[in-house]
Amino acid sequence: MDMKRDYYEDIQLLDSKVLWFWFLMLIASLIVFPFLAPNYYIYMANYMAIHVIVTVGLNILVGYTGQISLGHAGFFAIGAYGTVLLMTVLHLPFLLAILLAGFIAAFFGFILGLPALRLEGPYLAIATLGFGMAITQVIGRWQVFGGRMGMEAPSPSFGAYVLESDRQLYFLIVTIAFLLVLAARNLMKTRVGRAFIAIRDSDIAAETMGVNLTFYKTLAFAVSAFYAGIAGGLMAFLLGFINPSTFNFILSIYFLAFVIVGGLGSIFGSITGITVPWEHIDNVFREVDEYYRTSQYRKHNIRPDCYSARCV
């Protein structure tokens, strides 16, 4: 049996030459991809990479710490609007703006994590759901955020070099996604990650062993919100325009579905959960719903069943 004998064996990225070979092949494929693929597929790769960031962060909260959140669309919105406002109002460089927006989202995550000390299960889900919906309402009503009309996002730039095309954004988004996935993987190997897992398995036993529940539960929310905030800033760059309807409740459901389908407590599962064609599945149920609504079978009350299937 292959046993790890010290901490450094546990935290090393890969432990065999075969794995290093395939890892380098993956890196090479990611580098070559935007030069060979059509623009639409590059855009979709950017879209998926952004959602990978959110899902990995949410998995830290749900899969590794055992908490629940239905309000991650709110953190996503905070990151997007925070990045745009910091760049347009304070004229900060985009890297600093997106990092500060991530910390702003993390602060709100810390505040939202405080109810987690008293709430569990569906009660915590309802609290986070209310937070996510409140954020979109506030953004839609305050003119500083553009109101319901939304805001135009500036293009990121390195000095005079402006990233405008999907191919240029691809290298920025995929690089950030790769670094954040690697950071999450390493975080789970540290004392903080082991504390998260201990809380997930039994918070009473964890507290008995000396784990500070107040600190680590709020930290889990803050880290997860930070990931969502960074992803929100990148989404603003990718779309070029944001409005409150972009960050609706269904988006939070999608994020949670990515985590559950990919696998709770798995960084790799957070990545594979994105590959499920959710939009196509939703469109199929939408078409079936519309067909039965207008056909002779409407008396069988199929429409609520289709709506329920879409939500699931």
What does this structure look like?
With 312 residues, the protein is mainly α. It folds into 2 domains: 239 residues, no CATH class; 36 residues, no CATH class. It is globular and about 55 Å long.
Secondary structure layout plus pairing:
Layout: H1 7-11, H2 17-36, H3 39-64, H4 72-88, H5 94-113, H6 121-141, E1 151-152, E2 157-158, E3 161-162, H7 166-187, H8 191-201, H9 203-208, H10 213-239, E4 241-242, H11 249-262, H12 267-272, H13 278-294, H14 302-311
Antiparallel strand pairs: 1-4, 2-3
For this entry, give a set of tags.
disordered C terminus, mainly alpha, two-stranded antiparallel ribbon, globular, single chain, 312 residues, 14 helices, two-stranded antiparallel sheet
Helical element count?
14
Structural class by secondary-structure content? mainly alpha
Topology as a string of helices (H) and strands (E): HHHHHHEEEHHHHEHHHH
Q: Helix content range of the residues, please? A: over 70%
> Tell me about the biggest sheet?
2 strands, antiparallel
Mean pLDDT across residues: 82
Poorly predicted regions: 301-311
Radius of gyration, in Å, reads 21 Å
Strands, count: 4
Question: How many structural units, i.e. domains?
Answer: 2
Give me a quick take on this structure.
This protein has 312 residues and is an all-alpha fold.
